[in-house]
Amino acid sequence: MDLVNYLTFSMIPFFLGIWGIFPNKRNIPIMPTLIELMLPVVNLNSLVFLVHLDDMMGQLSALFALTMAAVESAIGPAILVITFRIRGTIAVELINCMKG
Amino acid sequence: MFDHDFLALFLEIFLINATITSPIYGVVFSTSKRYDYPPLVCNVGWLGLPSVLITILLVAAGALVANLFYNNLIIDNFTYFRQIFPSLSTASTIPTCLDYFKEESLNAPEFIILILLSICSMFFMILAYDLIATYSAIEPQSLCFYVIAASKRDSEFSTEAGLKYFILGAFPSGILLFGCFMIYGFTGVTNFEELAKIFTGYEITLFGAQSSGIFMGIPFIAVGFLFKITAVSFHMWAPDVYEGSPTLVTAFFSIAPKISILANMLRVFIYSFYDPTWQQLFFFCSIAFMILGALAAMAQNKVKRLLAYSSIGHVGYLPIGFSRGTIEGIQSLLIAMFIYVLMTINVSVTVLALRKNRLKYIADLGALAKTNRILAITLSITMSPYAGILLLAGFCSKFYLFFAALGCGAYSLAFVGIVTSVTSRFYYIRFVKIMYFDTPETWIIYKPMDREKLLLLAITLFSTTSFFLYPSPLFLVTHEMALSLCL
């Protein structure tokens, strides 16, 4: 199996997720989405390594990371919802209560 | 198979059980019609405090050295003393909360429970001896923190702080995980001990590296950690989160997580990846850290923001200790961290005490010397070791850090450190000037503090001012910790 291909395949969405935060000026729900994009891709990395190394630790850690990602994706939208309830908007440029 | 493992983890088991019991109590009684739906936050707080204190007793009573659960967790002298710091800081946070809840009429018993839960995960973070164990301990802690940062649901500031913390906290977790998996993929192990064996004499330079995957993994792990201790260039969330979230949350954020994450960083970077290459990273990070902490705090008018920046600056002095990886450096880091914790508890208790009219701007402290003389003296004393005035604890901690830096040849680091600490004295002195010499238009009379805050203030003030009289116990303890980490 070609490790490089699999790693490139998983690395592209990962860096897309990091990069995606910066041009995003209007929309907050995109941000948790991008984080949700990063985490499974990292998990995919681990699974590729597990097959490559023939070692079970990768599977175990992928399962752990999956659970954590699930909890994160539950808490993030909850915080979004309470923000929206108070402000009535979730535009990024309006999130500036605190200015240095 | 696990005969003694559960015995060694007795205090974690105890704390988790206590944490689980208190929400049951809270939920059952706060929804009971018979007692007229009582607000239980203080009761849960007073339940949480003894459970933390019993945990401290258990830590102190059961000193043992063990590798647990197939070497996923470790208990040695380093972890043993390290656990006392976060539990002490929690034990000091909880009693200060109680008055806050009463005044704000904020009925959120889950707040105390989340603090206890995050303390559990901090314990595991300190014990972690495996990359995956580290990640799965860091993550529950951050999850608790996202929730308690946004715990005031009807405040725009708090929800915004929670949102920012979530976005900028979940991100580094992904980066950290990526780094962990890169290391795993290119070495095949995740255990710190095995990693240490692999990395012995490895030389992780860019061009001399045998494996670019490892070269990529270590910076990712470092960035993930640096985000979490609000290092410079990864600090952008910290002032906003500190300002927006409720004051007691700010107090908790600036103390407890930094101890545990630095403990874990030491374990990873001193024990597993010991190498001069990444030490450069911390070297430059520390310089940037100190400069930004000193300069940005000057421009601040709000108290909590100023505290955030000064905590950034203070944590910036800590990487001096391990940017060269000597035993003296690590020891001075541990000393500085202990003193930082003491001083931060003192300052944040003071800020919590001055809550009438929601103390927001530094100018609101005007004429505090006339309205509340003793508090003004306390604040000016604490502010001076923050900046490092002679013979107070902050001076000792910085002195040993710079001494360690000079001892291992990091002259530029010591130079920048001294220059920035002199610069930062400006804005701490400004506090004193405002309190003693300004006469404001509106005199703000603050409510007297409650007994718990007074006690905490007295204890921390006494220990910071009289530290230099008898510093040897702390030195011995930190030396033992540093030795058990390095040897």
UniProtKB/TrEMBL annotation, chain A:
Keywords recorded for this protein, A-Z: Membrane, Mitochondrion, NAD, Translocase, Transmembrane, Transmembrane helix, Transport
Subcellular location: Membrane
Main location class: membrane
The gene coding this protein: nad4L
Family named by the database record: Belongs to the complex I subunit 4L family.
Listed InterPro entries: NADH_UbQ_OxRdtase_chain4L/K, NUOK/Mnh_C1-like
Source organism superkingdom: Eukaryota
Record GO terms (molecular function): oxidoreductase activity, acting on NAD(P)H
UniProt membrane topology term: Multi-pass membrane protein
Transmembrane segments: 6-22, 34-53, 59-84
Protein name: NADH dehydrogenase subunit 4L
Lineage: Eukaryota, Viridiplantae, Streptophyta, Embryophyta, Anthocerotophyta
One Pfam family, short name: Oxidored_q2
UniProt source species: Phaeoceros laevis
PANTHER family, sorted: NADH DEHYDROGENASE SUBUNIT 4L-RELATED, NADH-UBIQUINONE OXIDOREDUCTASE SUBUNIT ND4L
GO biological process terms held by the UniProt record: ATP synthesis coupled electron transport
Any single GO CC term annotated in Swiss-Prot or TrEMBL for this entry: NADH dehydrogenase complex
TrEMBL record, chain B:
One example of a Gene Ontology biological process annotation: ATP synthesis coupled electron transport
InterPro entries on file: NADH-Q_OxRdtase_suN/2, ND/Mrp_TM
Bilayer topology: Multi-pass membrane protein
Keyword ATP-binding part of the UniProt annotation: no
Keywords from the named record: Membrane, Mitochondrion, NAD, Translocase, Transmembrane, Transmembrane helix
Residues annotated as transmembrane: 6-28, 40-70, 111-132, 165-186, 206-227, 248-274, 280-299, 333-354, 374-393, 399-428, 454-471
Gene Ontology MF: a single term: NADH dehydrogenase (ubiquinone) activity
Keyword Nucleotidyltransferase attached: no
Pfam families: Proton_antipo_M
Localization annotation: Membrane
GO cellular component, one term: membrane
Domain NADH:quinone oxidoreductase/Mrp antiporter transmembrane as annotated: residue spans: 128-422
PANTHER family (alphabetical): NADH DEHYDROGENASE (PTHR22773)
Protein name: NADH dehydrogenase subunit 2
Gene assigned in the entry: nad2
